[in-house]
């Protein structure tokens, strides 16, 4: 464990890098998934198409995507942009489905009631549909966050520095504590972000405590 | 797009398909790693998931374990296990990594399949005199099968994508052209390997989509549109079952 105490600065700065890359990708994926998920939910004809395409994105191995994207988009594979965009794509692949499922989970009677008391389409979406879809969307967001943070480590294989550096460097120099430190740091960030999302969910959606266990487990199986 | 043409030229060159590192050998390695890991993971996770679903106990533990397993980066775990097991036991280290990767999806698929069954169906089975074992084998397992197959689908997709990193510790597989191409700066080789892995994943995904459809018991399929039938149906429109790509190199 000497290695860890001697390299706390390195671990700290890599953790911050890692956190920054992941958070940008998670936020971008979430922001893009809301309209995509809404479109898929609202327009039946587009639904199969949107869900299929985003689902197929998910099947592309990340190492492959990290090499194919730069060729298609014309930026260097070693750039941080490359990793963030790839991670955003995977986030979308998980989140669009969660947004659609979430909007599906809203009781149509509630939606009709909102219309009946005079909510327009836009106001109903923000004030009724979205909050009620919140718990399912949050479950998807939590899965997305944890997987993005753990997936980001692969960036080091194309030359993007983050906590993955501790794996490649640790293997080359055969330092077990270095690799272990990397795994623990990744798991700790993932746990902290997950707890933060859970806390945000409790604050923003106080009605959702302990709700919909069956739906959640279905989402976990799909995931 | 010149690179893309070069990549396909590399893929279709006859020398890629002969010799010790011929693409069909790498493909076979990739598939055998995937099959071994998913099979071992299934032996552990499916009975456990069924037990959780049948008894309704232990779900929180399973969720906590799955969450923790998903937070562990497979790439890091592979490197760690290779260092700990030693250079001679690299294949074992890789298999353990992939087994751990596959368990959460299979576990969730097994118990969620049971939980998605309408409780009235289970109650009805008990009411007509079925024993616990009969309910398990003749009601819960068949009705839970579609979600279990969905669990297999995401487990296989995650593992087959992740096996790519095995090449980083010299275990071959389709990651080999990607990793060696990267260090040699021959990007058409990298891209060729990447295309092959993506194609393999797409083919496996399509096969599992068919299996998922076939896994729905006949009685249920005829019952679509029925209010209780809906929850038993695995939503045929759903394509991939995006999983927590926790490690999806």
UniProtKB/TrEMBL annotation, chain A:
Keywords from the UniProt entry: Membrane, Transmembrane, Transmembrane helix, Transport
GO biological process: glycine betaine transport; transmembrane transport
Gene3D superfamilies tied to this protein: MetI-like
Topological category with respect to the lipid bilayer: Multi-pass membrane protein
Protein localization: Cell membrane; Membrane
Family designation: Belongs to the binding-protein-dependent transport system permease family.
The name this protein goes by in its record: ABC transporter permease subunit
Organism expressing this protein natively: Glycomyces albidus
From TrEMBL, chain B:
Gene3D superfamilies: MetI-like
Membrane topology: Multi-pass membrane protein
GO biological process: glycine betaine transport; transmembrane transport
GO CC annotation, single: plasma membrane
Lineage: superkingdom: Bacteria
Spans through the membrane: 31-50, 62-88, 94-114, 135-153, 159-182, 189-211
Domain ABC transmembrane type-1: 27-208
Entries under InterPro entries matching the protein: ABC_transp_perm/SBD (IPR051204), MetI-like (IPR000515), MetI-like_sf (IPR035906)
Pfam families, per database record: BPD_transp_1
Localisation per UniProt entry: Cell membrane; Membrane
Region of interest: Disordered: 221-249
Keyword entries, A-Z: Membrane, Transmembrane, Transmembrane helix, Transport
Keyword Aminoacyl-tRNA synthetase: no
Matching PROSITE patterns: ABC_TM1
Compositional bias (Basic and acidic residues): 221-234
Biased composition (Low complexity): 238-249
Chief site of localization: membrane
Protein family according to the UniProt entry: Belongs to the binding-protein-dependent transport system permease family.
Name of the molecule in the record: ABC transporter permease subunit
Taxonomic source organism: Glycomyces albidus
């Amino acid at each position: 464990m000497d290695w860890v105490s001697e390299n706390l600065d390195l671990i700290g700065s890599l953790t911050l890098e890692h956190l920054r890359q992941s958070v940008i990708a998670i936020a971008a994926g979430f922001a893009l998934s809301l309209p995509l998920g809404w479109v898929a939910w609202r327009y039946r004809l587009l639904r199969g198409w949107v869900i299929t395409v985003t689902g197929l994105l998910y099947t592309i191995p990340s190492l492959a995507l990290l090499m194919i994207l730069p060729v298609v988009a014309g930026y260097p594979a070693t750039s941080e942009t490359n990793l963030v965009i790839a991670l955003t794509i995977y986030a979308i692949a998980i989140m669009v489905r969660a947004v659609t499922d979430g909007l599906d989970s809203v009781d149509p009677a509630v939606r009709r009631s909102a219309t009946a008391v005079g909510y327009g389409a836009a106001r109903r979406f923000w004030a009724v549909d979205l909050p009620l879809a919140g718990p399912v969307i949050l479950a998807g967001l939590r899965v997305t966050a944890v997987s993005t943070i753990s997936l980001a480590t692969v960036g080091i294989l194309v030359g993007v520095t983050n906590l993955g550096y501790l794996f490649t460097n640790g293997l080359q120099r055969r330092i077990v504590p270095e690799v272990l430190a990397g795994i623990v740091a990744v798991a700790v960030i993932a746990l902290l972000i997950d707890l933060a999302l859970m806390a945000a969910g409790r604050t923003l959606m106080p009605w959702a405590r302990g709700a919909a266990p069956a739906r959640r487990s279905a989402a976990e199986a799909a995931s | 797009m010149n690179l893309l043409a070069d990549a396909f030229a590399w893929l279709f060159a006859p020398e890629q398909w002969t010799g010790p590192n011929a693409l069909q050998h790498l493909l076979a390695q990739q598939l055998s790693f995937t099959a071994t890991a998913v099979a071992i993971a299934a032996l552990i996770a499916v009975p456990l998931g069924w037990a959780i679903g049948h008894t309704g106990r232990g779900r929180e533990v399973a969720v906590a374990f799955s969450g923790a397993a998903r937070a562990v980066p497979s790439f890091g775990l592979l490197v760690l296990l290779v260092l700990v097991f030693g250079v001679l036991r690299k294949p074992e280290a890789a298999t353990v990594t992939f087994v751990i990767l596959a368990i959460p999806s299979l576990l969730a698929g097994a118990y969620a399949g049971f939980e998605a069954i309408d409780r009235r169906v289970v109650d009805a089975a008990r009411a007509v005199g079925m024993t616990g074992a009969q309910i398990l084998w003749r009601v819960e397992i068949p009705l839970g099968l579609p979600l279990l197959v969905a669990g297999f689908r995401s487990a296989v997709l995650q593992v087959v994508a992740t096996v790519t990193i095995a090449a980083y510790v010299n275990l071959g597989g389709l990651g080999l052209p990607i990793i060696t191409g990267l260090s040699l700066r021959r990007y058409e080789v990298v891209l060729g390997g990447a295309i092959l892995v993506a194609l393999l994943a797409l083919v496996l995904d399509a096969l599992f989509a068919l299996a998922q459809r076939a896994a729905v018991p006949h009685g249920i399929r005829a019952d679509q549109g029925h209010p209780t039938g809906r929850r038993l149906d695995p939503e045929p429109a759903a394509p991939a079952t995006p999983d927590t790509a926790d490690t999806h190199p």
